[in-house]
Amino acid sequence: MTPEQILILIRGLPGSGKTSFAYLFDAAVFSADDYFTDPETNEYNFDGSKLSQAHDQCRVNTHDALRAGQPIVCVANTFSQRWEMQPYFNMLETLALDHVRLFVVDLFDGGLSNEQLAERNSHGVPLFQVRKMRG
To answer: How far is residue 78's CA from residue 5's CA, in Å, rounded to a whole number?
Structure first.
């Protein structure tokens, strides 16, 4: 029997603590932001025209970690709409990964105001964008 694995999708506004929460686990942690972060310098350079590729890479990394038997895999993305999580739900179904327990953790705003989120997020998402994302 295949040992149980856990996939945790962590959603929330920028600055809500998604990545910090993910690192509380002894887990492989992925996010679309990884695509824009230079692994050598840890410098973040966002390019909105490459967002689709960033999410594709995040899904590939998640898939590979699950297939390799990583016990806990966390994906920390905004996931502002349910459809954005759907590829991960589909991944578990199409790969017949029925031994993987799925959890969705919604941090929303982490109890913070728009101003606090804009100040706290590590990728420079401006206040107007945080307000727009909150809805």
So the answer is: 23
Q: How does the average pLDDT of the chain come out, rounded? A: 92
Q: What is the dihedral of CA 43, 48, 51, 54, to 10 degrees?
A: -10
Kindly list the strands in the beta sheet with 72-76, ordered across the sheet, starting from the edge strand earlier in the chain. Answer: 28-30, 72-76, 5-12, 100-108
Whether residue 13 has pLDDT greater than 90: yes
Cα-trace Rg, the chain: 15
Confidence label for 2 from pLDDT (cuts 50, 70 and 90): low
Q: What is the DSSP string of 87-131?
A: HHHHHHHHTT-TTEEEEEEEEETTT--HHHHHHH-TT---HHHHH
Could you tell me the pTM of the whole model? 0.91
Q: Which two tokens stand for residue 73?
A: 């895999």
**Closest residue by Cα to residue 75 from 2, 12, 15:** 12
Give the integer Cα–Cα distance in Å for 130 and 94: 34
Each residue's pLDDT tens digit, 56-65: 999 999 999 9
CA distance linking residue 71 with residue 99, whole number of Å: 11
